[in-house]
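Task 17 of the worksheet. Students: predict the tertiary structure of the chain below and write it out as structure tokens. Keep your answer in the requested format; marks are given for formatting as well as content.
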Amino acid sequence: MEHIYLDHAATTPVHPQVLKRMCEVEKETFGNPSSVHAFGRKARQLVDSARSHIAKRMGANEKEIIFTSGGTEADNLALVGVARANRDKGNHIIVTAQEHHAVLHTAEALEKEGFRVTYVPVDRQGKIAVEDVMDALTSETILVSVMYVNNETGIIQPIQEIAEQMQHHQAYLHTDAVQAFGLLAIDVRELGVDLLTVSAHKINGPKGIGLLYTNKDVQLQSLQYGGEQERKRRAGTEDVARIVGFEKAVELAVEHRIERVEQYQALKQQFINGLQEQDIAFQINGDEQNTVASIVNISFPNTAVEALLTNLDLDGVAASSGSACTAGSVEPSHVLTAMYGSGDEHTTNSVRFSFGLANTPENIQTATKRVAKSVTRLTQSIR
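Model answer:
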């Protein structure tokens, strides 16, 4: 049985060109980038070059890029680093109710440090209102964090509009762009954000590497103690191979963005059409016209998500109920709860399907039949 991967929002297969480049570096460049001898200088050159090329492709200055171990660390650094460094200006932070747990749990931790956090709601279409963010701002607000694309629903948030409205406020604007990068055109200057998070493994790069774009004017406190790497903002020896792999993944994602978006959108539409042809009941969660090409979140009435995911896995289809970080949890989706309210059936019968380079029209056709089979099996058992 062919196993079909429909969980690209959780992680993506590493692109062959990325693997090739990383292997070359692992074989040929093992020096510590902080060493002054020839081996170290060679490694440093690769890190600096990668930083410069990645920065250029997102409209940033190379000095504004901080390499991290991934999206979670970048989000933590953005929130905690800004909060602690700017406490003299205020103690209020704004996030949305549907953020990734890397932001939500960090915000909760900051509340224990004495910071006040406002959680902005989303509507039933999964979108926040710019007015709600602006209404939440106070003279004590030092940071606003709104994810660019929701990881469970794929809904795109109005980041640029928020940035425009916040131009004359002291608060910094951070966006977790992990699910947006490579699918949406991102220029940090045009977008107007002060901080932005990217993770390599979401764009067919390696796990364990990400970045935080930090505008040169942002006051940020480091979270780690050690050496003076990353301009004293993130101590620890740089992982040269992963950084170079990240660079290659960014290059491919940016250069092939339009064709990838067209490909993923076609696969998603084929999947939806296929489910309709199988004549099963389902509803798409969120505004279909305001999502990225790669993600669709679907509610299947009279099913339970845990049982459905198990059946799908047995039938060779990999999908998820939302964030991979909570894949083992039986709790209702906090994203869908924010959209529909606690206790609503959508929060316990919805599955996220996400498309990418591992998919073809042929395996999508097979997947729709298997999904329909699993849904029918479960709904008939309930009856």
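Marker's comment: The chain has a mean pLDDT of 95. The chain is about 40% helix and 15% strand.
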